[in-house]
Amino acid sequence: xxxxxxxxxxxxxxxxxxxxxxxxxxxxxxxxxxxxxxxxxxxxxxxxxxxxxxxxxxxxxxxxxxxxxxxxxxxxxxxxxxxxxxxxxxxxxxxxxxxxxxxxxxxxxxxxxxxxxxxxxxxxxxxxxxxxxxxxxxxxxxxxxxxxxxxxxxxxxxxxxxxxxxxxxxxxxxxxxxxxxxxxxxxxxxxxxxxxxxxxxxxxxxxxxxxxxxxxxxxxxxxxxxxxxxxxxxxxxxxxxxxxxxxxxxxxxxxxxxxxxxxxxxxxxxxxxxxxxxxxxxxxxxxxxxxxxxxxxxxxxxx
Length: 303
Ligand code: CA
Ligand code: FE
Description:
- It contains 5 helices and 17 strands.
- It is an alpha/beta fold.
- The strands form 2 sheets. A 9-stranded mixed β-sheet has the order 14-15-16-13-9-12-11-10-17. Strands 2-3-4-1-5-8-7-6 form an 8-stranded mixed β-sheet, covered by helices on one side.
- The site of calcium ion has 6 residues, from strand 9.
């Protein structure tokens, strides 16, 4: 019961063809469907129809984030709780929001982000047989992460956004960066027993910081940096260590200016573990543990 994981992101791009070339050939995602103004992708090891949707728009940023719920009954359950929290919801039937889409409850989170809870997105299978599979398909190109991992967003009131995802959607807080006056500057929340599936940092409501894809180990981050450099993709930071989440990451930009991350490491987050707190003075180390400070682009706004 409840939210299973981050399901998908819908990202705005002003040049759909250029972005499609990047997401398929450099990032190495698999195209699963195409409309006149949207292209749908999945990571190779994902079974569901899509985890990234590119949408033609004059600006860049995040349009929608979707979380997959485990049971059909979760949709009614959460719709009631969201409405009880004073937030309006809309319901969409399977297929109504595009190819492969599941039944969806849509609402605007207190952080200003359009959020979908989804059940029953069509399953297309990963690229491996279910009997006697090899560890990886042949013929993958680019970075080819096996799956989407987490999304990192900005909002004005991190305390309120965090409380909503904890109290209404049953996310668990794993880490927080607290300002000296006690309010939350940054929070990390999970549903998958990993260090984070969703994070918020202080900034404008509705703004997008990055979407991250899982890699299996640190060497994959080195290979990803090689691939970015080979293709002339702008690297923002890393490969490096995050203090918060204890993970390793590499930040880079798609051709529209949306920040992508490939991420690995971190810890197993059992529901009984206590959240970790970073103090304001150690925020640099929480973000980039080796450098000890955020780089100048870290707080770039993507709305
Ligand atoms: Ca995660
Ligand atoms: Fe991240």
